[in-house]
């Protein structure tokens, strides 16, 4: 089985490389790789497995789409510009306070939903605009938003990696609060310093910025600016704290409700053509990302069917312990890049069991891993949060240059995660029930 | 530009064809019915919706098979298919249903506790649709399902699942996991309603002993184990000791008090039943397992899992080369279907035996093939030919 699976893996890698080179499309290349893998693996043309794979990340795709619709409609009403104007007015001379507030703003949506991408969708554009006007380089803005999106996903109350590992290991998802918050504060402080200490030579004066910013449309007021976000927050909190009294809404419907409320705040609320155009623009915008999550799902499904996924998992977890520590910063992020949250189940859970059998604290271990997995959200094949950041920031350099731009805070976060993984028992005092 | 439009249309057509081809298979799996021939002691079949009418007409409704001796005695409920990606649990329930004799007391069997979850494979896990058990009269085909309720029947998921009534936060997809939604809610999600209806059955019928059949990955510490509620701990402990000494290795774990939604915890807490959950080893669902095939489901032989075993990463006996020998002298290679079915059967019989000793007033006298018989004759030997059976005893699930 080892030989056969290794051959399939090699054929799949070669197919992916060749297809990517010829077609210049990672998405189509992934689907072709999946089909070739299935054929070589003796599964024939696996129509059911391909369709099943397409639906693996269906919910994730729907969240991307609806969150984008919400935020684009919100921006279309002019509320976003009004908000940016206000932040620039208030915080132009208080850089550090502004960065802290923007960081907190980025963390909230992801912490409540468990997805860093939601943070970027909901407030990424706003943060990017403000930082842009404040003169920060696109590289620093991208690093700031990407890092805080990762921290948002890790932050309690919803840390999906830890929750999935806890569920798989039959341990309750409790005691994670402090052990997650303390490292988050350290990493956030580092990222704010890293961003704030950078030079901003192109920074314009407050008056120049305010002149440049579009004037809010007539009738725009705080009520119209805050209500859509207020409703979003209320719905999310209701789902958390009044869950037994309301039906399950799900995030896609939540975002659509907020989108309709935003629409209702606009004076052109009945101009269907206007909103139709926003929808079309949004679908165009999100389409590449949807293509990615769909094709990753297809690829992962065939990797599972052919045993290639199992081969990768068994290879990693049977490495000597020292090697696990050394390679954790490579394996964990790359697993996330290809398996998304599945990384927690496929690699995270065996590591939890392995560490448990060695008497190491599993809560700290799970928390540590949850700092390492999200690092892979900028890595191929999916690159979901990375690409989202690029699109939100309007970063124009190559993807490699984006990776370089985020490298320093990325490595800092990796180092913190790794330290936690190395010293789980010494850090067990952070596990507070 | 023109080429680009043609290309888009081509992709659309190809996707449509793929959707139809895949869709045909999904529809086939969703509607495939398994056949079971109930034993002569069978008295009636009712639907779970009898205990919660809102389940009627939904994919959460599922048959309950009742075997009433008419003689006073204890009562037992067996759940198979709580997690349909552990389908041997349903096969074990079928073997019970096809062969059980009840001398005193009453037995309830629900072979597909989560019917909805049995109608779709697990997304991203590339499971085959079916597996077959060989019998002397041909092969019997069974579905391989999901862990959670089919999203066609319960969707969307919340961003986090909050367990009722404890308020504990659980991973979002566990809202469709029947073994996380107990004791359930009468007006909750479909999965919560299934749990609630099962609890109603347990409470209304005064069930004395409750079994939830499961399978586990070998790297999961609770594999080959009874998980017992505090009230059932003595029974589980004695049964595990006896089984380990005489039939096969069996461990015992106490049901964690602060882990909510699981049957062994909530059935024990919210009813008078003695609650036990059993896990058999299923390499098929191990995270490191290789090719997803029907053979892996049936034979339980996987080289990657073997490597994990050699590295000391699994929590039960597993050897695909020379096998391991059980106390009866059987050499077990891998984790074959017969071994897993047999474990559940004897696991049930042994626990009932100890309940009868600890609580003579709840005595339940039942018999069906156990581990030794299944290992000797094979599971298929105990599945009856529907074409030769009295049609009133043939049921489709």
Question: Describe it for me?
Answer:
The complex is a heterodimer of chains A (433) and B (397). With 433 residues, chain A is mainly alpha-helical. Chain A has one domain (46-430). Helices cover 76% and strands 0% of the residues of chain A. Chain A has 20 helices and no strands. Chain A has helices spanning 2-23, 26-40, 47-54, 58-76, 79-91, 95-113, 116-133, 138-154, 160-168, 177-196, 206-212, 222-241, 250-265, 272-306, 308-317, 321-339, 342-357, 362-372, 384-393, 399-422. Chain A is globular, with a radius of gyration of 22 Å. Chain A starts with a helix and ends in an 11-residue tail after the last helix. The relative contact order of chain A is 0.15. Chain B has 397 residues and is of the alpha/beta class. Chain B has one domain: Aminopeptidase (3-Layer(aba) Sandwich), CATH 3.40.630. Chain B contains 9 helices and 18 strands. An 8-stranded mixed β-sheet of chain B has the order 2-3-6-4-11-14-12-13, with helices on both faces. Chain B has a two-stranded antiparallel sheet with strand order 1-18. The mean pLDDT of chain B is 96. At the A-B interface, helix 3, helix 9, helix 12, helix 13 and helix 14 of A face helix 1, strand 10 and helix 7 of B.
Identify the notable features of this structure and list them briefly.
heterodimer; A: 433 residues; B: 397 residues; alpha/beta; Aminopeptidase; 8-stranded mixed β-sheet; 31% helix; 19% strand
Structural class of chain A: mainly alpha
The CATH topology of chain B is given as Aminopeptidase
Q: Using only CA atoms, what is the Rg of chain A? A: 22 Å
CATH architecture of chain B: 3-Layer(aba) Sandwich
Number of discrete domains of chain B: 1
Percent helix among the residues of chain B?
Answer: 25-40%
Structural class of chain B: alpha/beta
Count of DSSP E strands of chain B?
18
Major interchain interface with per-chain residue totals: A-B, 67 and 56 residues
The shape of chain A is: globular
Question: Major sheet of chain A, described briefly?
Answer: none
> How many E-type strands of chain A?
0
Mass-distribution shape of chain B: globular
- Per DSSP, what share of the residues of chain A sits in E-state strands of 2 or more residues? under 5%
Low-confidence stretches of chain A: none
SS field, number of helical segments of chain A: 20
Radius of gyration of chain B: 21 Å
Q: Helix and strand succession of chain A?
A: HHHHHHHHHHHHHHHHHHHH
Oligomer: heterodimer
Q: What would the average pLDDT of chain B be, to the nearest integer?
A: 96
């Amino acid at each position: 089985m080892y030989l056969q699976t290794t051959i399939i893996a090699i054929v799949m890698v070669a197919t992916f490389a060749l297809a990517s080179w010829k077609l210049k499309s990672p998405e189509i290349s992934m689907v072709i790789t999946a089909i070739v893998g299935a054929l070589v693996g003796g599964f024939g043309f696996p129509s059911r497995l391909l369709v099943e794979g397409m639906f693996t990340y269906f919910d994730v795709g729907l969240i991307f789409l609806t969150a984008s619709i919400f935020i684009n409609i919100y921006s279309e009403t002019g509320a976003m510009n009004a908000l940016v104007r206000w932040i620039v007015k208030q915080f132009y001379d208080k850089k550090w306070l502004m960065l802290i507030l923007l960081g907190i703003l980025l963390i909230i949506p992801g912490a409540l939903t468990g997805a860093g991408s939601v943070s970027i969708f909901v407030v990424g554009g706003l943060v990017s605009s403000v930082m842009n006007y404040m003169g920060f380089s696109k590289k620093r803005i991208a690093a700031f938003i990407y890092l805080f999106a990762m921290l948002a996903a890790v932050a309690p109350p919803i840390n999906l990696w830890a929750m999935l590992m806890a569920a798989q290991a039959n341990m309750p998802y409790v005691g994670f609060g402090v052990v997650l918050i303390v490292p988050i504060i350290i990493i956030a402080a580092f990222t704010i310093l890293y961003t704030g200490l950078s030079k901003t030579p192109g920074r314009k004066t407050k008056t120049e910025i305010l002149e440049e910013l579009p004037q809010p449309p007539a009738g725009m007021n705080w009520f119209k600016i805050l209500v859509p976000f207020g409703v979003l927050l209320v719905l999310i909190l209701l789902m958390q704290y009044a869950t037994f009294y309301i039906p399950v809404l799900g995030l896609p419907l939540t975002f659509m409700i907020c989108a309709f409320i935003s629409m209702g705040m606009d004076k052109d609320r009945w101009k269907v053509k206007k909103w139709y155009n926003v929808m079309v623009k949004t679908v165009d915008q999100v389409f590449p990302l949807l293509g990615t999550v769909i094709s990753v799902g297809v690829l992962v499904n065939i990797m599972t069917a052919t045993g290639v996924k199992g081969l990768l998992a068994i290879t990693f977890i049977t490495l000597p312990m020292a090697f696990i520590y050394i390679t954790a910063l490579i394996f964990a992020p790359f697993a996330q890049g290809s398996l998304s949250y599945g990384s927690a189940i496929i690699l995270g859970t065996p590591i939890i069991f392995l560490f448990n059998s060695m008497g190491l604290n599993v809560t700290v271990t799970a928390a540590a891993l949850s700092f390492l997995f999200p690092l892979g959200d900028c890595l191929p094949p999916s690159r979901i949060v990375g690409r989202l950041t690029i699109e939100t920031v309007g970063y124009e350099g190559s993807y490699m240059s984006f990776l370089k731009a985020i490298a320093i805070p990325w490595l800092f976060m990796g180092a913190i995660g790794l330290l936690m993984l190395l010293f789980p028992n010494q850090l067990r005092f952070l596990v507070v029930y | 530009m023109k080429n680009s439009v043609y290309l888009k249309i081509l992709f659309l057509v190809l996707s449509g064809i793929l959707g139809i081809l895949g869709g045909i298979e999904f529809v086939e799996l969703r509607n495939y019915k398994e056949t079971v021939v109930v034993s002569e002691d069978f008295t009636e079949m009712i639907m779970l919706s009898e205990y919660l009418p809102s389940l009627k007409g939904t994919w959460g409704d599922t048959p309950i098979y009742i075997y009433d001796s008419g003689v006073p005695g204890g009562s037992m409920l067996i759940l198979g298919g709580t997690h349909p990606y552990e389908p041997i649990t349903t096969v074990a329930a079928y073997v019970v249903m096809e062969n059980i004799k009840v001398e005193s007391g009453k037995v309830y069997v629900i072979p597909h506790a989560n019917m909805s979850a049995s109608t779709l494979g697990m997304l991203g896990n590339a499971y085959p649709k079916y597996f077959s058990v060989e019998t002397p009269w041909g092969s019997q085909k069974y579905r391989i399902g999901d862990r959670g309720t089919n999203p066609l029947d319960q969707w969307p998921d919340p961003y986090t699942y909050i367990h009722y009534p404890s308020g504990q936060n659980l991973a979002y997809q566990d809202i469709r996991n029947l073994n996380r939604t107990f004791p359930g809610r009468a007006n909750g999600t479909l999965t919560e309603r299934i749990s609630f209806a099962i609890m109603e059955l347990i409470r209304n019928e005064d069930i004395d002993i409750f079994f939830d059949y499961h399978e586990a990955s070998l790297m999961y510490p609770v594999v080959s184990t009874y998980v017992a509620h505090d009230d059932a701990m003595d029974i589980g402990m004695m049964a595990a000791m006896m089984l380990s000494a005489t039939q096969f290795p069996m461990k015992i774990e106490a049901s964690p008090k602060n882990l909510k939604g699981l049957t062994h915890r909530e059935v024990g807490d919210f009813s008078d039943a003695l609650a036990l959950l059993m896990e058999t080893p299923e390499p098929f669902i191990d995270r490191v397992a290789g090719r997803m095939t029907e053979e892996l489901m049936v034979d339980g032989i996987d080289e990657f899992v073997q490597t994990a075993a050699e590295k000391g990463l699994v929590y039960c006996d597993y050897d695909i080369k020379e096998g391991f020998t059980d106390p009866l002298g059987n050499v077990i290679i891998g984790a074959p279907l017969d071994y897993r079915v047999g474990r559940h059967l004897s696991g049930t019989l042994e626990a009932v035996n100890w309940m009868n000793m600890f609580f003579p007033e709840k005595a339940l006298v039942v018999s069906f093939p156990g581990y030794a018989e299944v290992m000797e004759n094979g599971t298929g030997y105990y599945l009856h030919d529907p074409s030769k059976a009295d049609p009133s005893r043939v049921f489709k699930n």
